Amino acid sequence: MKDQMPQLMNAAIRRQSLGLALLALLLFIAGNWHQAIIGFDSRFVVFAQEMLHHGPSFFPTTYGQPYADYLATSTLMTWLLSLPLGQVNSFTAWLPTSIASALIVMLVYRLTAPYSQRWGLLSVALLLLSSTFISETRAVSLDQMLAAVALTVFYLGYAHDHFGAAKRLHWVYLLLIVGFTIRGPIGLVIPTGVLCSYFLLNRQWRQLFSFGLLALALLGACVGLLLLLAKLSGGEAFMQDVIRMQFLGRMDGSEGSSGALYYFTSSVGNYALAYPLALLVLLVIAIGGRRPPDPALQLVLYCAAAGLLVMLGLSIPQAKKARYVLPMLPMAAIIAAYPFQVAHGRLYGWLRGLMLSLWTVLPALLIVGLWLARRRYPEQMAHIGWVLGVLGALQVLALVAVFQARLRTLVPALTAVLAVWTTYIVVVEPVERSLYDTRTFSLQVQAQVRQQPAPIVLHALGKDAKAIKFMVNLDYDRVPVFTQQPADLATLQGPAWLVMSQDDFEGLQDPRLRAITPTLTGTFDKNPYVLLHLDKTIQP
Q: Residue 492: is its pLDDT beyond 60?
C-alpha cells in the first residue's frame, strides 16, 4: 500500500493539472470570437488570410511575397483552425497561444504540486496575475508558444529525475525542432539552455555535454534546412533577407536595440507580480545562508538558474522586446510562490503577508483604477457599472476569506485572478480596441470601393506597418498600390482610391489632389485618415 501511494498521488496530480489547464483555457478564450484585430496581431492574421487564399507554404506571405522573419508554423495552426470557418477571426488566431498558455499552467502545477498543492495553486495564480502573460495569452504570441516548449523540455528533464517519469529524450529533441519552427534559431537555443542549466546545477556532466552537442548539431541542421527552404521559396535575395532578419538584425541592433540590463530592470513592471516577488524570495534565500536544500528548494534553484540563463542569453542580442523573455516567467512564478511551501522563517512569513495583502486589496485597487480611467475615457467606459459591482463582490469575498483560516490563502488569490482577468477582458481589451480601431474606417473604405471598383492606393502607410493594419480588415486579395512620397502621386492615373492620413493630405502641394474633397474622413489607429477618389477625367 505504501509503495502505491506515490503513483496514486501522481495520478491525482495529473488529473488536477488537466482540470486546471482546461479551466485556464476557458478563461483565456472567454469573450473571444470576432474581436477587432489591432497592433502586432494584424501581421499574423494577414499571414493566415493569405494562406487561406493561396494555400500553405514554408514561409508566410504578405501581398503574395514570402515574409523572411518567421517560418509558417504558427500561420499553419491558424490556417487549419480557420479552414472550417472559411475565414480568419480572433478566435482562430489566438487559440494556439491560449492552448500554449494552458499547457504552461498545467506544467507549473505538475512541477510544484507533488511538494504542496498550495504551492502549485499559488504558483499558477502568480503566473495568471503577471501582466505580460495576460496580454500575450490573448494575442498571437510566438514567444508564449516558445515558453510552453521551453517549460515542457525542462519538465521532462526534471520529472525523470524527481518523479520517476520515463526518460523521453526523443520528445525533447522533437520539441527543440518544434521550437525552431516556431521561433527560428532562438526557439531551439532557449529550450536547450534551460535544460542545460538544470544539468549544470545538478552536476550531470555526461548528460550536459551529450545533450548540448546533439542540440548544437540539430541547430546546425535546422539552420541549413531553413536557408534551403528560404532559397527555394524566394531565391538568393530572399535567403539573404532571412539571414538578416532572423540572425544578423537581432544581433547587431539594426532591428532595434536596448541596454544590456533591459530585461532585468524592465521586467519589474512587465512581469509583475511574479518577477519582482521572485527577486525578493531569492534575496531571502540568499540571506538564509548555505544549508542542504530540500527537494522543494532544489526546484527553486533549478528554476532560478533556468530563468537567469534565459535573461542572460537574450541580453546578448541588441534587439530586445519585453515578450522575448516570456520563457522565464513560469520559473519566476514558481519561485515567487515558494514562501507558501516553507513553514519556518520570519522573512518568509513577511513575504507571505505581503502577497496575501496584495491579493486581498487588488479588487479595490482595480475599482479605484477604473474610476480614474473612466474620467479620461468616459465614452469608452460608460457602461462599466456592473464590472465595478463584480469587483466589489470579489473584494467582500476576499475580506471575508482573510478571517477564515482554511480560506485565508487560496481564496484571496482566486479573487485577485478573477478580478484582474474580468477587468482585462471586459474593460481593458474593448477600450484598447476602440482607441486603436482600424476596422471601422477600413470597412467604410471597402464599402465605397465596392460601389465604384478601382485600385486602392495606400500613401505613406508603410507595407509592414499601417498598411498591414488596413489590409487585415478587408476581404481583398489584390495587392494595393503603395506610394511613399508626394512626388510618387504625380504620375498616378485615375480612377483610383487614395488612403492617407489627414496630415499628409493637408500637406499635399499637387493642385489636382488638393482640389479633391475626401469622400470619407475617419479615425484609423488613433489618427485621422481620409479617403480620396481620383477620377479618370482628372489628368496631370
A: yes
The C-alpha cell of 392 is what?
466589489
State how far the Cα of 73 lies from the Cα of 50, in Å rounded to an integer: 14
Q: Is 521 helix (H, G, I), strand (E, B) or coil?
A: strand
Sign of CA dihedral 35, 38, 40, 42: positive
Strand partners, 456: 497
Number of domains in the chain: 3
CB-based burial, 14-27: b 16+ in 10 Å, e otherwise: eebbeebbeebbeb
Q: Give, in degrees to the nearest 5, the angle at Cα 351 between 346 and 355.
A: 150
148-162 burial: b if 16+ Cβ within 10 Å, else e: bbbbbbbbbbbbeee
Amino acid identity of residue 427, one-letter, is V
DSSP state of 404: S
Tell me: do 394 and 477 sit in the same domain: no
Q: Which three cell numbers stand for residue 353?
A: 503577508
Sorted by sequence, the CB contacts under 8 Å of residue 364 that are 6+ apart come out as 391, 395
Sign of CA dihedral 227, 229, 230, 234: positive
Phi first, then psi, for residue 277 (nearest 5°) are -70, -35
Q: Is the pLDDT of residue 441 over 90?
A: yes
Of 407, 435, 463, which residue sits at a domain end? 435
- The pLDDT tens digits for 141-170 are 999 999 999 999 999 999 998 888 878 888
Alpha helices in 68-204 (DSSP H): 73-82, 90-112, 117-128, 131-137, 142-162, 169-183, 185-201
Residue 277 lies in domain: 5-29+38-340
C-alpha cell at 389: 459591482
pLDDT at 30: 95
Which of 255-269, 359-373, 389-403 is predicted least confidently?
Answer: 255-269
Please report which helix (H) or strand (E) contains residue 459, including its range.
strand 456-459
- Give the separation between CA 349 and CA 500, rounded to whole angstroms: 59
Report yes or no on 207 lying in a domain: yes
Which residues, in sequence order, are bridge partners of residue 522?
529
> Which of residues 318, 340, 362 is at a domain's end?
340
Query: Which amino acid, one-letter code, is at 488?
Result: D
| Chain centroid, CA 212 distance in Å | 28
Together in a domain, 494 and 372: no
Cell of 494: 485615375
- Neighbouring CB atoms inside 10 A of 117's CB total 15
Specify the DSSP class assigned to residue 58. S
